Known about the structure:
Blueprint (H helix, E strand, L loop, with lengths): L10 H14 L12 H8 L3 H13 L3 E4 L3 E4 L9 H8 L2 H25 L2 H20 L5 H18 L3 H9 L1 H18 L3 H17 L3 H36 L5
Antiparallel strand pairs: 1-2
Helix pairs in contact: 1-3, 2-3, 5-7, 5-10, 5-11, 6-7, 6-10, 7-8, 7-9, 9-11, 10-11
Amino acid sequence: xxxGQVRQRRLADNIVEQLETMILEGTLQPxxxxxxxxxxxxxxGVSRPSLREAVQKLAAKGLLTSRQGGGNYVxxxxxxxxxxxxxxxxxxxxxxxxxxxxxxxxxxxDCAYYAAKRATELDRQNLQAAYDSLxxxxxxxxxxxxxEEGAADARFHLAIAEASHNMVLLHTIRGLFDLLxxxxxxxxxxxxxxxEESRRMLxxxxxxxxxxxxxxxxxxxxxQASEHISYVQEVLDQSQQESLRLARAQRRDGTPKR
Length: 258
């Protein structure tokens, strides 16, 4: 039997693999600047020429971008599933809002389940910080704008995705972050206008979800996430039905009388 020669792997390829893993797991995020070349070479225990070769390979793949005199950055458009024009189209369509909520129902329930099972101490610290920021918006009442509250809400759900340690779930949520944030802002406005208890319900639901994850109760976390999205769907369905009834009544009122 003829045995082929085993090719030794280039050091740069090992560096590429490590950096790709850091991007996939969310350690390096879109738009983030890499440490200085000297520091990164020391961190990996490699020479600067090997590091430069690895950076060039990642840049050729579209994962990194280099700026003249400004270092190397993770590409900002990684995971950008929706362009701004499409965001605008989706934002103005009630059926798209409903579809996104249905998508979130499945996605975020799974994120919560795995976050409760897999969250590390560092994940719990990050989740605590995101939850505290959301609670600060709730506590400030009308002083926090809907945009601020929506962003804090979306960041809380993103922190849950990060704690899930599922790379596909994380990058799906991260790619949808702008759409998710706009969806939350739109939902908040409609819910608060329709039901006085909406803010109190959202505070309680987020609190129960947070506690379930922090205590490692996976099935409870899944249930709380599912019930949270179901409540939002219920209120917004009611809002849409009331809008349809109002439009129907206005059309009748504008019909010429015989």
